[in-house]
Q: What sequence folds into this?
């Protein structure tokens, strides 16, 4: 779809297309201007990360190791065990991916290879529009449409079917892990589907005809040729979706419930919970405690590291794939 | 697929005509009796309202190489793709007339498309090995698509078809390497091996050497004469010398006044190139058409 | 691969063909059945995806359309909602003003920086610049709330904890710069090399080639990228929520607090006790989606136009 969305997964941008040096010609002012820009922008981004690291230092002094081992988080009461938030972040994102990835890939393949051509444009347009809809709107929809439905219909039904056993224990109030993951899944679904659609549509027709000419069925073509040859791009789609889910703030604030409460490690899909990002936003408005800002910056730093690790592993996997086929 | 009344009539007549020619004449002309494996009768391919090619009737001799020549746009590729039903996927494409494989109509004779395509292989203009598969997996892919699971059979078929494609010696020690790492000519031979592994009866080749250098082209031309022991070949080529060198029979297509391709002449290659019966064939052979 | 050592059945060509073709026939039914099942799954995935997506569109339009009227758009929000007249929530003009102000300043800051940055990525190669490019790409993926923290620390705090529209604009500009940079760089790279090489071969300075050849060609695509980045920023809530404060009147002053559409939505939804304000979120959502949609549509039209002109 758009440069804005798939920029980070677009191989051309990373390519080694042209090899021109800044040093061509006697074009000093131009050179200087460009170098200064690069240094300033690079510096700005370094300062960005640096300032969050710096602000977190008083936080680390306060929380120490209990930050990673403590199983309770209550900012207002100055209880800083971030483990429940880390678990909450990983759980909401994991559940959302579990729902959104298969559905997103399936949607992408269906749009390109299943539905009649005249519907392709309209359905891809819907998907692409929803990929750029701001997340606060998903929050509104989750809050005003889905929460009442979960509260009144889905959760009582699930509770009665399972007798309140894991993972549906406790009192369902609509808000919580279930609502958050569900809306998060819907939120990243268009992103995953839109990028995957572009990726599978770019598989050369020659490959598809090559497989067909060997007697492959349509599903064999898709499973054995189309999907394998687009796996880097599909991985990029998932990585982007993961990043969005991990960092989603506002929708999580309004959907996960339990604001200003103690967050234990979630054990039920009905339970309220918090994520790293949502707790930062929840408490930013009323900083409290000796290291009030510092502790939130610690959360920010952990979030940054998690997202960094996800991106890094995606890059490593892609690079390994490439190497494997360029021996 | 629609067979018109006239189409049926014409095909019967053509059949009778073919039958009535004493086989002796054929034998003399061609040094040996020939059985036909595929026959085309009044075949036409249309895309929407555009007729791409029409009026094509000829028989493809078993274990022979049949070439199709003609200027660009005369419908060679279109016709070739009709022979293994690759147009099925193109919206608005329609094939009329009759194409039979061993006397069974391939469009409405009840042969499932995937089984048909495993009997009629295709090699494309540009080498198209599957990029994520190793050399071994590329050759094995057709077998796997067709439900062959036993490793010993697959191993054997991979070796056999790589040998048949004259590629075995070059890749024997690197079967696990990606197919895309081979040179262009090697990739094309890999695609030939991949097609051969399914043991097709007919191999369709669409300008298989047009993307290759002269040496690789030579390799593939040499290959074809040995391949026809095991498979019938139909090749589209722009290169008239190539058609003359490799093929036994030759079909010449040309656009009519309305830009639709037509079969002008079908005969043994020798006859087409030495004594064509149509003036237009002669002109084309002598380079008087673009 | 143990092909050579494998027990090799000695088969004639005909036997081999018979073997493989019979295998193909034997598995045909299963294969076709599997294919159908797989395609059914794809269809199901599409339906499962469309249900919530269409539900969002339906809810936003269905519940939001009645808010789209001149009074709602042109009056600021009610300073206080009375218990006894809960529907008198006023309009959203203060938030529209704030959004326009913040986004305009942010775009004005981001455009020149992004274009220069894109040019410098385009004009250079080598390890350092590749690292810089990767760095810019990573910035796209970082959560926006972090940008909010950064601006809070380096702008809001030094100004004596003053919440301003300008601080919000800086945060949004920072969100836009990486997106715009990458988009503009790919616009530059889409310029055919034949155009630039000829000029460079004649000895033209790179800066002249950039100004006279590359930029004019790349401008439409750059505008597209800029508009898409703007459409991203319009709805951003997290980075500005705690740095712009709020304003109940239409304020065009950058150094005063402001309310924007997303922050108003957040406050109505989350901090209000009145159902009337929560419901008004649908109206604001519709207007926001409409803005995003327009920006995307316009960018597409530009792409289509230029492609038509060039092919
Ligand atoms: N999918 C299609 N839709 C519409 N028209 C088509 C399609 N495929 C081919 N044609 C038309 O059919 C005619 C024959 O094309 P074809 O590719 O078969 O020619 P060709 O003889 O193979 O030419 P070349 O030697 O250049 O490969 C052309 O006019 C072409 O435009
Ligand atoms: Mg052709």
A:
């Amino acid at each position: 779809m758009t440069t804005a969305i798939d920029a980070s997964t677009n191989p051309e941008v990373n390519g080694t297309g042209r090899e021109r040096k800044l040093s061509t010609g006697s074009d000093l002012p131009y050179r200087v201007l460009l170098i200064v820009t690069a240094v300033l922008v690079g510096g700005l981004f370094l300062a960005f990360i640096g300032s969050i690291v710096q602000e977190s230092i008083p936080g680390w002094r306060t929380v120490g190791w209990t930050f990673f081992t403590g199983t309770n988080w209550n900012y207002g009461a100055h209880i800083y065990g971030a483990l429940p938030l880390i678990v909450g972040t990983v759980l909401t994102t994991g559940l959302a991916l579990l729902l959104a990835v298969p559905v997103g890939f399936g949607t992408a393949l269906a749009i390109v290879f299943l539905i009649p051509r005249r519907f392709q444009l309209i359905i891809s347009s819907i998907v692409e529009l929803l990929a750029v809809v701001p997340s606060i709107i998903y929050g509104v929809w989750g809050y005003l449409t889905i929460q009442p439905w979960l509260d009144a219909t889905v959760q009582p039904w699930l509770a009665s079917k399972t007798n309140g056993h894991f993972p549906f224990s406790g009192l369902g109030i609509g808000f919580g892990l279930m609502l958050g993951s569900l809306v998060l899944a819907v939120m990243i679904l268009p992103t995953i589907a839109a990028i995957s659609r572009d990726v599978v549509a770019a598989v050369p027709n020659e490959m598809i005809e090559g497989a067909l000419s060997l007697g492959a069925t349509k599903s064999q073509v898709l499973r054995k040729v189309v999907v394998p040859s687009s796996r880097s791009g599909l991985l990029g789609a998932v990585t982007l979706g993961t990043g969005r889910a991990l960092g989603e703030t506002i929708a999580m604030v309004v959907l996960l419930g339990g604001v200003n409460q103690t967050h234990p490690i979630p054990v039920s899909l009905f339970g309220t919970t918090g994520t790293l990002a949502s707790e930062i936003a929840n408490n930013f408005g009323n900083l409290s405690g000796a290291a009030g800002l510092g502790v939130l910056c610690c959360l920010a730093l952990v979030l940054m590291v998690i997202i960094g690790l996800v991106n890094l592993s995606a890059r490593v996997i892609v690079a390994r794939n490439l190497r494997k086929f360029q021996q | 697929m629609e067979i018109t009344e006239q189409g049926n009539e014409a095909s019967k007549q053509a059949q009778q005509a073919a039958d009535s020619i004493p086989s002796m004449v054929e034998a003399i002309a061609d040094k040996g009796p020939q059985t036909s494996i595929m026959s085309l009768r009044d075949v036409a391919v249309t895309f929407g309202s555009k007729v791409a090619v029409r009026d094509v009737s000829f028989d493809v001799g078993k274990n022979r190489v049949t070439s199709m020549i003609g200027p660009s746009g005369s419908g060679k590729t279109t016709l070739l793709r009709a022979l293994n039903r690759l147009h099925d996927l193109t919206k608005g494409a329609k094939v009329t007339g009759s194409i039979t494989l061993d006397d069974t109509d391939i469009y409405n004779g009840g042969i499932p498309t995937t089984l048909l395509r495993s009997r009629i292989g295709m090699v494309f203009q540009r080498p198209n090995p599957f990029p994520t598969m190793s050399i071994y997996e590329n050759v094995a892919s057709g077998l796997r698509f067709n439900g062959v699971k036993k490793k010993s059979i697959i191993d054997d078929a991979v070796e056999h078809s790589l040998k048949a494609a004259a590629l075995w010696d070059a890749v024997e020690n690197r079967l696990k390497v990606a197919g895309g790492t081979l040179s262009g000519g090697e990739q094309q031979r890999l695609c030939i091996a991949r097609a051969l592994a399914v043991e097709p009866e007919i191999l369709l080749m669409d300008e298989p050497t047009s993307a290759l250098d002269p040496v690789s082209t030579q390799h593939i031309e040499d290959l074809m004469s040995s391949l026809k022991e095991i498979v019938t070949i139909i090749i589209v080529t722009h290169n008239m010398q190539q058609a003359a060198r490799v093929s036994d029979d030759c079909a010449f297509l040309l656009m009519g006044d309305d830009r639709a391709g037509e079969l002008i002449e079908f005969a043994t290659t020798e006859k087409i190139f030495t004594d064509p019966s149509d003036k237009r064939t002669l002109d084309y052979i002598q380079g008087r058409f673009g | 691969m143990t092909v050579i050592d494998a027990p090799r059945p000695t088969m004639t060509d005909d036997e081999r063909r018979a073997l493989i073709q019979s295998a193909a026939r034997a598995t045909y039914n299963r294969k076709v059945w599997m294919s159908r099942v797989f395609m059914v799954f794809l269809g199901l995935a599409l339906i499962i995806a469309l249900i919530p997506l269409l539900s969002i569109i339906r809810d936003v339009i269905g519940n939001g359309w009645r808010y789209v009227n001149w009074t709602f758009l042109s009056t600021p929000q009610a300073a206080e909602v009375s218990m006894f007249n809960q529907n008198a929530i006023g309009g959203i003009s203060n938030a529209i003003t704030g959004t326009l102000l913040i986004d305009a300043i942010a775009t004005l800051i981001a455009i020149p920086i992004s274009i220069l940055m894109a040019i410098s990525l385009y004009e250079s190669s080598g390890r350092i610049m590749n690292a810089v490019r990767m760095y810019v790409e990573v910035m796209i993926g970082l959560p926006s709330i972090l940008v909010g923290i950064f601006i809070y620390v380096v702008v809001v705090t030094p100004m004596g904890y003053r919440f301003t529209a300008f601080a919000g604009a800086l945060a949004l500009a920072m969100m836009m710069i990486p997106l715009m940079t990458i988009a503009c760089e790919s616009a530059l790279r889409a310029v055919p090399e034949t155009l630039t090489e000829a000029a460079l071969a004649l000895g033209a300075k790179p800066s002249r080639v950039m100004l006279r050849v590359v930029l004019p060609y790349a401008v439409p695509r750059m505008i597209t990228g800029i508009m898409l980045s703007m459409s991203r920023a319009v709805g951003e809530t997290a980075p500005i929520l705690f740095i712009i404060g709020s304003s109940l009147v239409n304020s065009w002053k950058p150094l005063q607090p402001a309310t924007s559409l997303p922050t108003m939505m957040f406050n109505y939804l989350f901090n209000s006790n009145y159902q009337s304000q929560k419901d008004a979120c649908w109206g604001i959502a519709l207007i926001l989606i409409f803005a995003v949609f327009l920006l995307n549509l316009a960018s597409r039209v530009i792409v289509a136009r230029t492609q038509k002109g060039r092919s």
Notes: The two ends of chain A are 32 Å apart (CA to CA). Chain A has one domain: 35-326. DSSP finds 14 helices and two strands in chain A. Residues 1-23 of chain A have pLDDT under 50 and may be disordered.
